[in-house]
Amino acid sequence: MNKKIFLSLFIIVLSLVGLIDAGYLSFQRAAGIIPPCIPGFQCETVLRSPYANIGPIPLSVLGLVYYSIVFSLGVLVYLEKPLPKMFGFLRRAGATTSDVLRAVTIFGLFFSIYLLVLMAFIISAWCTYCLISALTCMLLFFVTGWYVKEDRVGE
Predict the structure, then answer these.
(1) E strand or H helix at 56
(2) For strand 53-54 and strand 57-58, is the pairing parallel, antiparallel, or unpaired?
(3) What's the half-sphere exposure (Cβ side, CA atoms, 13 Å) at 155?
(4) Which helix (H) or strand (E) holds 13?
(5) For 89-104, what is each residue's pLDDT tens digit?
(6) What is the rounded distance in angstroms from the CA atom of residue 7 to the CA atom of residue 25?
(7) How would you write the pLDDT of the chain (155 residues) with one tens digit per residue?
(8) pTM score over 0.90
(9) 62: how many CB neighbours lie within 10 A of its CB?
(10) Burial bucket for residue 72 (CB in 10 Å: 0-12, 13-18, 19+)
């Protein structure tokens, strides 16, 4: 299996991990339940904080959207398909599917860093599910960067 295929499959798997994590939190949130936390972590404090939403939208739902986008782009990268027509403005600018995936994972990384800073310095509590998401975003950032590097070497 060549590196690009392996890396694109790894991107898909990581996005599925993120979807499961965000989906679980979203489901629990809709049911009005704070999921159990690993001892020593304070998931309830984090998940009930004013920072757990952007307006009326829970961050877990936004995570579902983010990981769905990454999953979809990861599948397109794996299949070596161009950007869909709805991305016409990016296609006209010369962006490839892997370029857009890279931009999305850069956004995810920086947003995760912002949320980690909030947990560390503002909320003063840690949530295991949030840390799983942050780790997933970080791995997606690095793996996507590696994929783009391999993609450019192959051109």
Answers:
(1) none
(2) antiparallel
(3) 7
(4) helix 3-30
(5) 888 888 999 999 999 9
(6) 27
(7) 699 999 999 999 999 999 999 999 999 999 999 999 999 999 999 999 999 999 999 999 999 999 999 999 999 999 999 998 888 888 888 899 999 999 999 999 999 999 999 999 999 999 999 999 999 999 999 999 999 999 888 66
(8) yes
(9) 15
(10) middle
Q: Are 140 and 105 in contact (CB under 8 A)?
A: yes
Cα–Cα distance measured from residue 102 to residue 50, given in angstroms and rounded to the nearest whole number: 30
Question: In terms of Cα–Cα distance, which of 14, 23, 11, 5 is closest to 101?
Answer: 11
Measure the CA–CA gap between 128 and 106, rounded to whole angstroms.
Answer: 22
Total residue count of the chain as it appears in this document: 155
Concatenated DSSP letters for 109-127? HHHHHHHHHIIIIII----
Whether 39 contacts 124, CB under 8 Å? no
Report the candidate in 122, 10, 12, 147 with the shortest Cα–Cα distance to residue 72. 12
Q: Which of 63, 66, 57, 70 is nearest to 24 (CA)?
A: 63
CA pair distance 97, 90, nearest whole angstrom = 9
* Helix, coil or strand: residue 55: coil
Count of C-beta atoms within a 10 Å radius of residue 73: 28
